[in-house]
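hey so u asked for the seq, here:
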Amino acid sequence: MAVDVMHLDPGQTFAKSAFGGKSRSTEELSREHAYPTIASPSSSGSPRSVSSLLDLTWAEGAGEEQQAIDRLQSSRKQLEDEIEFMVGELTRIGEEMSCTAECIQIIQDSEETPKKKLMRRGRKLFNAKPKEGVKFLLEKGLLNKTPEDVALFLSVSQLDKRAIGEYLGEGEDFNISILHEFVRLKEFHGLDLVQALRAFLSSFQLPGEAQKIDRMMEQFAQRYCDCNPGTFSNTDACYILSFAIIMLNTSLHNPNVKHKPTVEQFISMNRDINDGRELPPEMLRGHYESIKNEPFRYHEGGDELTEVFFNPDHQGWLIKEGGKHKNWKRRWFILTDNCLYYFKSPSDKEPRGIIPLENLEVRECAEAKKNHVFEICLNEKLRRGTLIKACKTKQDGKVVVGNHLNYRIQASSQEEKDEWMKRIRASISRNPFLEMLQARRQRVSNKGPVNL
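ran it, C-alpha cells below
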C-alpha cells in the first residue's frame, strides 16, 4: 500500500504493516532514507545505520589516539629522566676534568725545570725591554752569544712583534749580524715580491726610525734576490720596488689620502728602475692589484685610530681661528704621525679636522690682535694663494677639504706657544720612505730628483 509521505505533518505518526507494525515519524523516515541500513556483524544480527557505524569508528579512533598520546607522554617522561641523568653525569665529568686540569697544572708547575722558568722570565723581560731580555738570556747561558742562536730565538719564540722589530733595528754590529741571520731564515723561493713582503712584515713590526727601516729593507732585498735569481738586475731595484709597494699600500688604504694612484701611474713610476731593463708591466700590474685587494697587516688587532692617538707627540687645548667664519673656538689638539688633529673634546673618537704637516712652516703671528698666537702656513715657495691641504668633518659627518690659507692658533701662555711651535716644527719633515726611495732612485738612474 502506497503512503503519501509528502502530505504528512511533521512529527505525525502512523502505523502500517509495511513497516512491521511500528509507528514512525517523518523525521525517522527521513533519517533512514538518508542512511540506508546495512547488516551488522553484531550477535543480534539486527541491521545498523551508516551513522551508527561512523560513530563507532570515531570512538575506536579516539581510543587509539588516546593510547598514542599516552605512549608519547610515557616516552617523554622517559626522555626527561634520561636527560636529567645525562646532565648529572656531564656535571660530574666536568668537575672531574676541572680537578684533573688543576692537578696537571700543579704537576707541570712542580716539574718545570729552573731552566724553563728562567726562559719564561727572559721572554717576558724581552717583550718589555728587548735588549735587557737578550742580555739576561745570554748571561744565564740560555742562548749562545752567536747571531745564529739569537736570530733563531727571535724567529721561533712567542714574542711581541714590536719588541722584535725594535731589537732588530739596533745599529750595533752584533744586532746587524742578528738581523742578517734573522732574514736568512726566511724562505722566499717561488714567491712574488708582494707575497714575500707579506711574509717578512708579518714576522715583526717595523720600527719608526728611517735608518732602522733602511737596514731591514736592505737585508730583505738581498735575501729575496738570493732566493729568486734573475727577477731583478740588482738588489737596488728590489729595494726600490719594495718601498714603492709599501707606499702604494698606504696611498690606497689610508683614508686621509684623497688622490689614489692608478695602476698606470704605478707602472710608469717603477718601469725603469731595473738598471736600464724594463720591469714587466704585467708583474707590476699584479703587484698593484694584490695590494689593492688585500692591504698589508702590520699590526695584530687594535683600532687604527686608537693606535694613532694612543701615544701622541704632544696634546692639549688650543684656540683655533675658523676658515670661512673668522670666529675662534677652543679645540683639543693632538700632534702625532706628522699630522695635527683637532677634536671638539678629548673624549671624541674621531677628529673634527686633520692637518698633514707636509711642506708647511710654523711661525709667530704678529698680525693677530690676541696674545700668544702662532700660525701654520705653506712654505714661502708654495704660499701664493694656495690652500693648505687639509680636511675637516662637518656636523652632518661629511668630510670636506679645509678652507685655510693658514691656521692661526692661540695658546694660553708664551711657554705653551713656544712648546707647540717647537713640537710642530720637529714634525714638519719629509716622509722617511720618500727620502730613502728618492735617494735610491737617484743612485740607480742618475736622472735627478723624482717627484712622487
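The longest helix spans residues 50-111. Residues 44 and 423 are 117 Å apart (CA to CA).
lmk if thats what u needed
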